[in-house]
Structures are given as structure tokens and as C-alpha cells.
């Protein structure tokens, strides 16, 4: 009855920055104890893969050194080309049996050598046709996970679990603002290099894919158009009133994103699983690109909102991060979701 509160830490290692979120799970709910980020040099991480481990370790260390809390166990996320999420249908069997059979199934669905990948799965529907069940198969290149594990170890931390960024974003966004029953939502975590697309209904992923597209390509298109450095563009975008007219670049980025999303949705429609998307929810730094939500809404003909991962979380009490976190909340969706992952377990 007098359950002791416990804390969890999500560590989102992204291309533009490493973000840390520490949550306290108490009787009264979940409280944000700490949220911080440390920018990374360009090219430290490219397309979800760590290029310079020492720089990432340094960033993680500095995030942990700067906070008082002692928790060293962290949940990290993976995404990008090295991660494959697929819904498959296989013979109905127990979870224990499936844990073995999943390797044979994966060989047919994953374009990597089975020895080079780590596998996880979840049974979504035990009753999918005669003697069959539907399973969510998650495969990640072993190298991705080993690299992350090494970063965590070198930073003096302990790896508690590895999650998929798109699912972490879903956990964070849907916890505070669940979609109406039966409605299909497209959740987009728009990062610097990668956008995680996760189409869900009633909390269950219908289609999950990572696009090689993000805020970085938008910034680059502005750099090119105006012959500016990245820093100059970032500074100009932060100014009000705007010094640059970026309408053309915004429209082009929204069109790219919309076309990629359309491809994902077409896969879903052709499989007969869903036809109409009721809402699109954005998070990640790319969600903060001025005018993007409206432009995407026009192209998709569906309501587009910017999700708030802090909804339903308390931010009260000593040391709790305040307004600065609230302003950049969409960028912390994955970090929050990673920290929430352990909410139900243990
Ligand atoms: N106000 C803004 N205007 C335009 N772009 C912005 C703004 N704020 C953030 N961004 C974009 O968001 C990106 C960073 O987003 P985020 O922190 O979600 O990425 P990341 O997690 O580090 O990267 P990834 O997930 O791709 O590895 C930056 O590259 C920048 O392009
Ligand atoms: Mg990210």
C-alpha cells in the first residue's frame, strides 16, 4: 500500500543532441524530476548510427554529472535503417514456443543475416485466422545495440532496456492524450536526420517505419538557398520577426514528408487494415518548424497537432524542470517515452 516511489531514466541519443529524462513514479502519479540535453557536433551521429562514440560518451557523462540524482540505470532507444518493425502472421503457439520460432520467421522478413540482428516480438492477436496469430516483430542490427551498450558502459551507467524510438514517442504522446477508440492516428517524431512514423489504433501499431528525412534537410535547403552557414540559419529561424522568407523550403519539406507518409498509408490501405487517418500528431524538433503542422494538414486533409509528452506528468516540486522544458517539450517525447517504458514493468 505504501509503495515506495521509484525513478526511471530515458536517454535519447539523437543526431542533434542527447536528451535525458528522469521520471519519478509515485502513488500520486508520474513526476518529471529532471530533463536536460546536450548538443552534439554535426556528424557525430548520422542516420541513427554512432560515428564518434567518444563524443557521445562525453555528452552523456556531462548530462549525468550535471544532476544530483543518483540513478544510473537507463533505457535507450534505437531507430533508423538498422531497425525493422513488421507485423507478421505465424502459426499459433505459446510465447515460449514463439521465442524460438521467431528466428525462423525473421529470416523471411528481415533483409539482414540472422546472426547480425537482435530480435524481440509481441503477440498482437492470438486469433488471426485458423490456427494463426499476429505478431509484431522487432529486429535491430546487433551492432546498433552493442554500440549503445558500449556508450552507456563507458559513461559509467547501466543499460536497463532498449526500446524503439517510434514506440517510445507513442507511449509518451498517447499516455497524456489518448486517441478516441477506433480512431487511426499517425504519430510522427520528426528528428534532425530521421522521422519515425508510427500509425496506431487503440494503442496498437498498425504500421511503423523510419524515414530518412528530418529538420536537418529543411535547414540545409535554407542554407543552400541563402548561402548561409548552419549556425546563421538556426539563428535567423529563432528571430522574430523572421529575417528569412522560408516559405518555399517549408512547402518543399512538407511535401516530401507528406509524400512519404502517403506511401506508408498506402501500404496500410492496401493491406485492408485502415483507410482513414483521423489525426496526425507531430513531435521531435521538426515539429517546431514554423508552419509545418498547418502545411502538412493542408496536404493530408487531416487535422495535424503538435503533441505534448508532458501532459499527464507532474512538474511540481524542488528541482523540477520548468518553462524551458515546456517550450521544447515535443523534442523530449522520445526521452519521456523511454523513461515511461519501465512504468508498467516491476
Ligand atoms: N524552431 C525550429 N525551427 C526549425 N527547426 C527546428 C526548430 N527547433 C528544432 N528544429 C529542428 O529539430 C531538429 C532537432 O530535433 P530533435 O532534437 O528531435 O532531433 P534528434 O533527436 O537529435 O535527431 P534524430 O532523432 O534524427 O537522431 C534540428 O535538426 C532542427 O532542424
Ligand atoms: Mg530523435
From TrEMBL:
GO biological process: cell division
Entries under Gene3D superfamilies matching the protein: 3.30.1490.300, 3.30.420.40
Cross-referenced InterPro entries: ATPase_NBD, FtsA/MreB, PilM, SHS2_FtsA
SMART domains: FtsA
Source superkingdom: Bacteria
Domain SHS2: 8-173
PANTHER family: CELL DIVISION PROTEIN FTSA-RELATED, ETHANOLAMINE UTILIZATION PROTEIN EUTJ
The protein's name in its UniProt record: Type IV pilus assembly protein PilM
Protein source organism: Eiseniibacteriota bacterium
Amino acid at each position: 500500500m505504501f509503495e515506495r516511489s521509484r525513478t526511471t531514466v530515458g536517454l535519447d541519443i539523437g543526431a542533434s543532441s542527447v536528451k535525458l529524462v528522469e521520471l519519478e513514479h509515485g502513488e500520486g502519479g508520474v513526476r518529471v524530476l529532471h530533463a536536460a540535453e546536450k548538443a552534439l557536433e554535426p556528424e557525430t551521429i548520422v542516420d541513427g548510427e554512432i560515428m564518434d562514440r567518444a563524443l557521445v560518451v562525453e555528452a552523456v557523462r556531462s548530462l549525468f554529472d550535471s544532476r544530483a540524482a543518483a540513478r544510473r540505470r537507463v533505457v535507450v532507444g534505437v531507430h533508423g535503417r538498422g531497425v525493422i518493425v513488421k507485423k507478421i502472421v505465424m502459426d499459433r503457439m505459446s510465447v515460449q514456443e514463439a521465442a524460438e520460432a521467431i528466428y525462423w520467421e525473421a529470416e523471411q522478413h528481415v533483409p539482414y543475416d540472422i546472426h547480425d540482428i537482435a530480435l524481440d516480438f509481441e503477440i498482437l492477436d492470438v486469433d488471426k485466422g485458423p490456427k494463426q496469430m499476429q505478431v509484431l516483430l522487432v529486429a535491430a542490427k546487433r551492432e546498433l545495440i552493442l554500440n549503445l551498450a558500449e556508450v552507456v558502459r563507458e559513461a559509467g551507467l547501466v543499460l536497463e532496456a532498449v526500446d524503439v524510438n517510434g514506440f517510445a514517442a507513442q507511449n509518451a504522446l498517447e499516455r497524456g492524450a489518448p486517441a478516441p477508440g477506433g480512431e487511426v492516428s499517425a504519430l510522427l517524431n520528426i528528428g534532425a536526420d530521421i522521422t519515425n512514423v508510427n500509425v496506431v489504433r487503440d494503442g496498437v501499431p498498425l504500421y511503423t517505419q523510419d524515414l530518412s528525412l528530418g529538420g536537418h534537410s529543411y535547414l540545409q535547403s535554407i542554407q543552400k538557398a541563402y548561402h548561409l552557414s548552419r549556425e546563421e540559419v538556426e539563428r535567423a529561424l529563432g528571430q522574430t520577426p523572421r529575417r528569412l522568407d522560408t516559405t518555399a523550403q517549408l512547402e518543399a519539406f512538407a511535401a516530401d514528408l507528406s509524400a512519404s507518409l502517403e506511401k506508408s498509408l498506402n501500404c496500410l490501405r492496401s493491406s485492408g487494415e485502415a483507410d482513414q487517418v483521423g489525426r496526425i500528431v507531430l513531435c521531435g524538433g521538426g515539429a517546431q518548424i514554423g508552419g509545418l503542422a498547418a502545411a502538412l494538414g493542408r496536404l493530408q486533409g487531416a487535422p495535424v497537432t503538435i503533441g505534448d509528452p508532458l501532459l499527464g506528468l507532474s512538474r511540481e516540486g524542488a528541482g523540477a524542470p520548468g518553462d524551458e522544458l515546456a517550450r521544447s517539450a515535443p523534442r523530449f517525447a522520445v526521452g519521456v517515452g523511454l523513461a515511461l517504458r519501465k512504468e508498467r514493468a516491476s
